[in-house]
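TEACHING EXERCISE
Course module: macromolecular assemblies
Task: Read the component lines below, then compare them to the predicted structure of the full complex.
Student: A.B.
Group: 4
Components provided:
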Amino acid sequence: MQIERSTEWKEGFSKRLEDLETWDNWTLYKMSYDITKTSLITEFKGLQSLKYLPHVTPLAHQLEAAERVIEEMNGKAILADEVGLGKTIEAGLILKEYLIRGLVKKALILVPASLANQWVEELHLKFHIPALLYRKNYELDHVDVVVMSLDTAKRSPHREKIYAQDYDLIIVDEAHKLKNHKTVSYTFVQSLKKKFCLLLTATPIQNDVFELFYLVTLLKQGHLGNYETFSSVFSKGRRDAEQDEYLKELVSQVMVRNRRQDTGIEWTNRKVQVMPIEFSTEERTAYQMLSGLKDQHSLFSDAFTMITLQREMCSSGQATIGTLSKLHAECGNLEAAASIKKLILLLERLPDHSKAQKAAELILKADDKVILFTEYRATQNYLHEYFYSKGISSVIFNGKMSKNSREWAKHLFKQNAQVLIATESGAEGINLQFCHHVINYDLPWNPMKVEQRIGRVHRLGQEHDVQIYNLAIQDTIEDHMLHVLEGKIGVFEKVVGELDDILAAKLKEGTYVSAADSRVSPSIFQ
Amino acid sequence: MYPQQIHEYLRQFFNETNCPIIHESEHFLQIQLTVEMDKKIMNRPFYWRYVESIQETPKPAQLTLITDIRQLTNGMKGEVVHMGSPRLHQLFQVTKELGSYVKMFEQVNREDATQTVLTPWLGVNYQISYSCHQTKEELYSLGMNLMTGAVFQNFHETLTARNLHNTPPDHVFQLPYIISPVRALDRLEDAVDGLIQKQDPSWAEEARRRWKKDQAVLDYFYEGQDDMPESYVLEKQAMAERFTPRIRVDIVNGGLFYLQ
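Instructor-supplied answer key:
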């Protein structure tokens, strides 16, 4: 084997033999030897980083994860702990270990813009890693550890600057954003050399098993075979329990997934309930009129538009009116325009939305901080006013707000307001352990978004049982959505592992068979 | 290193580099840096260029280093220094730089002086690192007798047990070396190679085994393709960087020693 050595010392030594330079101090010489001896890495295995991190006491599952990634997975892994278990700590430990061992000289950390500051801060304070937040015009030559927003990094000229560097470790936070292999983000990360690579996501599957295929392939090409073989073996129609086991085994070779209950920490419980709600008679009439529109005009025959309207109707009149007004403006047909106008008038006259009433009731009963998630900004405004009329103080929080406004809203919620009315686009990555009531005012299509929502409060540091209320209006699109969500959870649990309750506790009793995939064996729910 | 050890280290370091310690308790040190030390560790080249260009009296900085923050309650301001802190790491580097080469003489009692002969030795401390996807390091301290060519291990430990000084004792005869120190250095290198050969090679075999396995997975992914795309080449390169077993020999420090 080739042995590398440098000749630098020899040159300095020769100069001193020829009296060209002076000899050094004996005490410093001995000190230097002692330092080398104390900081010597005497074993291939184990974590050296801990003795350099006196202010961090990682939890057992975090240490295990870091060791496993380094020793068994050769530094290429998906860190998929449940939300709130400290994936960032695991990634920090791994990065620190590689830096100390000299295996990583330069590292690139790609994160959502909203989390960039938090990363830099944690790396500094907890890990003493001088990470730099990338700004335009920065030269990357002299920056060893850089934190960059993925959205910036993938664009020119930043992308080219990254290509010009030689990174040893790539970390991607919220890696479920790479689930679609046709996106620019995916191709960008794919085009980076990955000597070591960590993908962080609590939700490696959001909708279907192919997302996991592409995520694993991004990390390690060929680990799940190529697309043709994978799809022929694992496509929905042909799956059986044995293949699911096999896939799970393969996935576990590149993925660390700690669940709350395996951490050995006393976790507070999650109490999840579906709250069925009846429309009032007027609302039911409006919903039916709305659904009837699709037979009236081609504008409404598009399934996506119709579903959107129906979902909005289940959320608030205001959200529905917003979309209807847009359609009214675009619609050339007089007859259709008239029916829309009529519907809008009807909606404007509706009394308080049944769901809003239920939400207010739950909030008053909770008599404590509540975080409420909705999909629609119009609903946010409506609820804000409605709650005010009921004497409930609330603040609005969404992704359209600037970083400062969001910080301020969070502060207000902590100090004064009872309710935070949020959309999930704004809530990513924020920690609200001081609150333990979550209302899913309306549900998204993607169950992992619900998991991420719950994860805002059900995380390390939560001291109370977390109450989760999923509101769904009976005999509407929301019924169907519940079914689809449950089906998706089924796929996740088969190949990744079990999930904590998201929709309702009844899932675990096996009473339910997925609507999306009727071949699902009931055993997986046990 | 515990806070106490770090404290002791800092005190010794600044004493040896002639930086006066102005205030000190068990848990902190306040140091007046010399101009040289300021230039080395304070990272302010513009200040120094400015001062020197207008020939003003230079004001080297003072540094307050806190070695155990938990013991300080009076709101003391300063840099908290612990194992892993960038400042300590920097001082370690400076220590290494300032303690690389020595020429030392064993001290002899005056009455024995005329009967004593000092033999020249070359002593070198080697740090060897083995790396693939993991790493391990070893430290060897070798000494070669420059009269006979005999090589000894754990040389540094034998040195620290003796009373050495950087000037020769009076009236003592120093043998001129037969083997030149530069030649000896080459021969010590061979000795280090010998030590490396004796190491258990299983770490490198394991790395190669993992490499082969990953390569097979990658090849399977691109099976049947004649022209390999960029992504294949990239991954192959990443794999080589990850798994290639490497051995590196660095010299920590070393010097000439005249011993009884």
